[in-house]
């Protein structure tokens, strides 16, 4: 039997209080900067891809709260409609709809029949084509914005145009190592795409931004094996941002007033960041645009 004296109980409570306070401050630090803009979006329409879960869904909730008509563009109807109900409930807005969009299919309908892997197709080519198909509408509705969620891992990416042009091998592979590289390449493409897009959009009042959302405790790990997931789960819960915090830089790029002159730039933690030379190379960005047009059948 253990007996606690009043003093001991007091001490334990004090220690527990300090531990909780330290954890809360630590979590606040981990969750980073918040989007401070109070911008309302009544009369505006926003399309959010990947919005049935994770960061995308948290972003959709915030945009709906601001009064926008929010389109959840997801590939799976059941997941999409479940998310609509959830976003409506959390935002208190009924102005949320589902539209089916399979970013892999978008890409498959292009002229490539082989080669490019799924992750590269979805992360870069699918969004490249979607953006291009919406450009005229975006110009008509200006001021408007295009926000592309890249990643810090773009720093590890590289572009090999010989492989890209011949459609062979680029973005194919299943091992964790090759997936890491493909992911990094595709995220570098997101940054370069935004760099080139900003140039094409000069004078239109349509602006664009790419960003790193932070390390987020989202559904991103659901495809990993059980062991890795078990290992990552407690680490992610403590050290990674929750999805609501993970949406803040996307929201900053989407709604913050006065960042229009930063069109084409890369953001992290709700602030513009410097990128390596390879992520702002004019010639490479232009070439990537041309190759991407060919790959998705736009030219
Ligand atoms: N989590 C992080 O730590 C982290 C860090 C840096 C960058 N990011 C970036 O943040 C973005 C969101 O990540 P997340 O963590 O929120 O990921 P997530 O929870 O795994 O969500 C990914 C979303 O993409 C959708 N998707 C996948 N393939 C698709 C396709 N073919 N067509 C249409 N939609 C498709 C998924 O839909 P289904 O449910 O149908 O699969 C899901 O809604 C990604 O671009 C990711 O690269 C994340
Ligand atoms: C862009 O916005 C400014 C300020 O609202 C406006 O004066 C200008 O006409 C717009 N340009 C175009 C191309 O829409």
TrEMBL record:
What range does the record give for the signal peptide?
none
Q: Which UniProt keywords apply?
A: Membrane, Oxidoreductase, Transmembrane, Transmembrane helix
Q: Which Pfam families match?
A: adh_short
Instruction: List membrane-spanning regions.
Output: 12-30
Gene3D superfamilies hit by this protein = NAD(P)-binding Rossmann-like Domain
Keyword Nucleus applies: no
Lineage top rank: taxon: Eukaryota
For this chain, the family text in UniProt reads: Belongs to the short-chain dehydrogenases/reductases (SDR) family.
Its name, as the record gives it, is: Dehydrogenase/reductase SDR family member 13
């Amino acid at each position: 039997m253990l007996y606690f004296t009043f003093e001991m109980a007091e001490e334990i409570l004090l220690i527990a209080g300090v531990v909780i306070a330290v954890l809360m401050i630590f979590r606040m630090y981990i969750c980073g900067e918040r989007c401070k803009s109070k911008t309302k979006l009544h009369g505006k329409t926003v399309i959010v891809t990947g919005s049935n879960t994770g960061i995308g869904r948290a972003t959709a909730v915030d945009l709906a709260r601001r009064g926008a008509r929010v389109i959840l563009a997801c590939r799976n109807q059941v997941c999409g409609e479940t998310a609509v109900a959830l976003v409506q409930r959390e935002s208190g807005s009924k102005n949320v709809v589902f539209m089916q969009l399979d970013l892999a299919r978008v890409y498959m309908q292009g002229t490539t029949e082989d080669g490019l892997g799924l992750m590269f197709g979805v992360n870069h080519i699918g969004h490249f084509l979607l953006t291009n198909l919406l450009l005229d509408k975006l110009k008509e509705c200006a001021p408007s914005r295009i926000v592309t969620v890249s990643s810090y891992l773009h720093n590890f990416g590289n572009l090999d145009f010989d492989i890209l042009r011949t459609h062979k091998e680029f973005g194919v592979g299943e091992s964790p190592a090759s997936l890491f590289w493909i992911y990094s390449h595709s995220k570098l493409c997101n940054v370069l795409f935004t760099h080139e897009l900003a140039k094409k959009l000069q004078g239109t009042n349509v602006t664009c931004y790419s960003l790193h959302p932070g390390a987020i405790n989202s559904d991103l790990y659901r495809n990993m094996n059980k062991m890795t997931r078990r290992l990552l789960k407690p680490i992610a819960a403590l050290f990674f941002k929750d999805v609501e915090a993970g949406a803040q830089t996307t929201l900053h790029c989407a709604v913050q007033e006065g960042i229009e002159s930063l069109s084409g730039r890369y953001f992290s933690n709700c602030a513009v960041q410097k990128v390596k030379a390879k992520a702002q190379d004019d010639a490479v960005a232009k070439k990537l645009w041309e190759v991407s047009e060919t790959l998705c059948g736009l030219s």
